[in-house]
What does this fold into?
Amino acid sequence: MTYLDTHTAMWLFGGERHRFSAVGNERIRHDELLVSPAVVLELQLLHEIKRFKSTALRVVEVLSKDLGLRVCKLPFASIMESALDLVWTRDPFDRLIVAHARANDATLLTKDEHIRKHYRRAIW
It folds into this structure.
């Protein structure tokens, strides 16, 4: 099971597989792919401020169809609990995205060096 960070979902949606490492591409091909609902919200906010053309629901729809992507359904309260001790970041999206992956002891595919430094299961 591998969770996608927001930018990785954007790149996959845009067909930019070349941006990923060999390990990342292997995970995309062979793992169950999930996103935190926080990724969906961040994608929509990026769309609203014109930094991303597609809506979040369109991204989820396409990646679900093409790659089997699912939005994680873990209870929000358990994710919040998991996020409380992630004091290494003040970014609420990063906290929730990492908390989702951590709650499942899952890999998180991200290029974000700060996340990779602090979350042991983060890969690129």
Notes: The mean pLDDT is 97. The CA atoms of residues 54 and 62 lie 11 Å apart. The chain has one domain: 2-123.
